[in-house]
Amino acid sequence: MKKMIVTIIILFIIFISMVIYRNSEKEAEVKVDEVNTIEEYMGKIYGWKEVTNEALPEFDNINNADEKWLWGTVRENIDGYEIGYEDIENKRKELFGNEMTKEYPKDGTEFISYDKESKKYIINEITLDAINDSYFLNKVEKTKNGYTVEIIEYLVDYTNSEKDSIEIKNLKEETIYKLTEEEATEGNITKVIKENLDKFNKKKVTLEKENEKIVVKKVEKEN
């Protein structure tokens, strides 16, 4: 009788362990709507190399991030022409979270300048070249407080698009592949990059949940 009770207890423990393991596996799964949220956020913080030095610089803390990228990103995500200082600060907090202690310079920057007459901040125009800074999500893993995302960075050069030649380049601006305008769909470009992963830049982006949203905490180079 004692042996039977011991066996039942052991089986019960094994069953409970299996249930916990399956539940933890389900919790670790990244759902489609989560990926969509990550894509939307990454699209907001991924900038332009020719304007902000790097489209997405490396940093171990948001307060140590390149300031041109920080303020260029804020400018890109604000609509309108004339705005108040509070609008800039609200957008800064929305994009980078409460841990960011840097405030937008009161006298403005090249991206959003201060007009003394109107006492307003003016959104300045930005001139972009024909090379698009791009990325795609290669891996997404759930963490306790958010996600770890691996991105592959690449450039799409439309400089010679009139000659029906669109070049896929790495961040060193080395041409990896050429496509015609018709061939240069998102699917084909992604296929080219996946077939040449060792030639492109990878970064690991740490995202954390904060007040029902996600914010970037850290960006590390992987190769």
How does this model look, in words?
This protein has 223 residues and is an alpha+beta fold. It has 2 domains: 32-36 and 129-221, no CATH class; 50-123, no CATH class. 35% of the residues lie in helices and 28% in strands. The protein is built from 6 helices and 9 strands. The strands form 2 sheets. Strands 4, 5, 6, 7, 8 and 9 form a 6-stranded antiparallel beta sheet that branches. A 3-stranded antiparallel beta sheet has the order 1-3-2.
Question: What structural keywords apply?
Answer:
single chain, about 220 residues, alpha+beta, 2 domains, 3-stranded antiparallel sheet, 6 helices, about 30% strand, globular
Q: Would you spell out the secondary-structure blueprint of this structure?
A:
Blueprint: H1 2-28, H2 32-45, H3 49-52, H4 67-76, E1 82-83, H5 85-96, E2 112-115, E3 120-123, E4 131-142, E5 146-157, E6 166-169, E7 175-179, H6 186-195, E8 201-210, E9 213-221
Antiparallel strand pairs: 1-3, 2-3, 4-5, 5-6, 5-8, 6-7, 8-9
The major beta sheet can be summarized as:
6 strands, antiparallel
Structural class: alpha+beta
The total count of strands amounts to: 9
N-to-C span: 62 Å
Q: Total domains, how many?
A: 2
Number of helices, counting only DSSP H or I runs of 4 residues or more: 6
Mean pLDDT: 89
Task: Summarize the amount of helix as a percent range.
Answer: 25-40%
Proportion of residues in extended strands? 25-35%
* Low-pLDDT segments, ≥5 res: 15-27
Order of helices and strands: HHHHEHEEEEEEHEE
What is the rounded Rg?
A: 23 Å
* 3D shape: globular
